[in-house]
Amino acid sequence: MNAPEVSVIVPVYNEEEGLQALYDRLYPALDALGTSYEIVFINDGSRDRSAAILRQQWERRPDVTRVILLAANAGQHMAIMAGFEKCRGQIVVTLDADLQNPPEEIGALVAKMREGYDCVGSIRKDRHDSAFRRYASKAMNRIRERITHVKMTDQGCMLRAYSRSVIDAINSCEEVNTFIPALAYTLAQNPTEIEVAHEERHAGESKYSIYSLIRLNFDLMTNFSIVPLQAFSMTGIIIALLSAFFVIFLLARRLIVGPEAEGLFTLFGIAFFLIGVTLFGVGMLGEYVGRIYQQVRHRPRYIVGAVLEKKE
Ligand code: UDP
Ligand code: MG
Description:
binds uridine-5'-diphosphate, 8 strands, Spore Coat Polysaccharide Biosynthesis Protein SpsA, Chain A, binds magnesium ion, alpha/beta
């Protein structure tokens, strides 16, 4: 298998019900491109039969299929990183396994890449997700626009294409818990975006609980911006100034008017508010310290159990 033009990276986590339907559309869509390609599936420590189904497919199409079996669940973005390190294409496309991103759109991404862009993002035309997901993701998009330098219209869509140079740059990054589209954007020199169709999840259910969605957004915000940290120190300064004035006011009042016992509860209110702010600040610090901790440990991002590929 010589280096193909296009590599498609598909992370798979508990997708046994949907994989056959994915094969049925992905392979014909890539065959239709009329160029050399490889598909790199990463089994992200699935607990269902996904690994076995991927192995079958590898036996059926070993010429264009490679399978990385991770030993444990590392998360979607880390699984994609495993694929990036293994893939050899000049144009690298990421795709979800659940058919929410139609594989037929890969052709459009590849065509755009051939025009000379080094990163082609995508905007979902009409999104088929729950209303909660749509609104939450819009809000997070807006916050990200404000506090990071990453300009993406639709951060959530994973159907994207990257050039070999961007992939090499990503591979040289040692950080863990990253958010690939944003990382690629910061490394790309000539990015662009196109509109792509979006569909209902073909089978199974979303692998993201509210908890993991919140974690993912923390990855995005704190990896690409220190504004949350700065925002806290700024609020801290303002609140400290205001309370200093307040203390002076209370002191003056006590000297002029005399002590007041009724004001006790106001003070309680203020104290609780400050405790809240402090706790939030400590939490925010914890976010960054946690990241430093993860980074200094230099743990591997994932552990490969096996790689299924043809001998060269
Ligand atoms: N995924 C993964 N590891 C995980 C969670 C998800 O490899 O820990 C894969 C999953 O199999 C799918 C893709 O990432 O191919 C996107 O997941 P999902 O469709 O559940 O996310 P959503 O569309 O709800 O954002
Ligand atoms: Mg999905």
